[in-house]
Amino acid sequence: MLERAGLRRGQLGDPGAQFTRDPTADRPVSPTPAKSPVHAPEHLLERALALRGRHVVLYDGVCGLCNGLVRFVIRRDPNARFCYASLQSDFARHVLAVYDKDPSDLDTLYVIEHVGTERETLRSKSRAIVFIVSSLGGGWRAVGALRAVPRFALDLAYDGVAHLRYRFFGRHASCPLPSPVEAKRFIDV
């Protein structure tokens, strides 16, 4: 992600680079000439460089359910393997542009696994939820069994919940601020 997003120090973008896509993955694969890549501001560069090997959750920052998920994961992730950025943030906008995803689609939760490594992968919707929860260890690993369920079926359930989430879980006027202890896990707060 760091290299693909133009987030490498001193290489904030070659105006003639674009990335081709592997049809089996949600991630760019190799550069090809085309339109301008993402140009990341310096303050995002510093934060992104510290993420190597970690997982980044991109969520709707004003959604009560999404904020509940983030709090749930923080409590169960003592090693801070997960970092967080709201879809409304500059970081999410820059990174999702690399993956040809729309950050204004607030109905989609994303997780970028293993940031900045060759294993980096973008997952969305139900596959993101399954990865996040099953990565918490302990009994939560059992959630990984849902990988056997076809993606379209899980995404159908995900879309149903996403459609009703504001009604049942509420909506904040703005993204809630994390506590000072949790703030180091958030990008672009």
Search tags:
about 190 residues, Glutaredoxin, two-stranded antiparallel sheet, 5 helices, 6 strands, alpha+beta
Question: What's the SSE blueprint?
Answer:
Elements: E1 17-21, E2 28-33, H1 42-49, E3 55-59, H2 64-75, E4 82-86, H3 90-98, E5 110-113, E6 121-124, H4 125-134, H5 151-169
Parallel strand pairs: 3-4
Antiparallel strand pairs: 1-2, 3-5, 5-6
Explain this structure.
- The chain has 189 residues and is an alpha+beta fold.
- It has a single domain (50-185), classed as 3-Layer(aba) Sandwich (Glutaredoxin), CATH 3.40.30.
- It has helices at residues 42-49, 64-75, 90-98, 125-134, 151-169, and strands at residues 17-21, 28-33, 55-59, 82-86, 110-113, 121-124.
- Strand 1 and strand 2 form a beta hairpin.
- The protein is globular, with a radius of gyration of 16 Å.
- The chain starts with 16 loop residues before the first strand and ends in a 20-residue tail after the last helix.
- The model is unreliable at 5-24 and 27-39 (pLDDT under 50).
Q: List the total number of helices.
A: 5
How many domains in all?
Answer: 1
What is the N-to-C succession of helices and strands? EEHEHEHEEHH
Using the coordinates above, name the CATH class: Alpha Beta
Low-confidence stretches: 5-24, 27-39
Helix content class: 25-40%
pLDDT average, as an integer? 75
**Dominant shape:** globular
Give the amount of beta strand, in percent: 15-25%
Structure summary, number of beta strands: 6
Please give the radius of gyration in angstroms.
Answer: 16 Å
* CATH architecture descriptor: 3-Layer(aba) Sandwich
C-alpha termini separation: 20 Å
The structure class reads alpha+beta
Largest sheet: 4 strands, mixed
**Can you tell me the CATH topology?**
Glutaredoxin
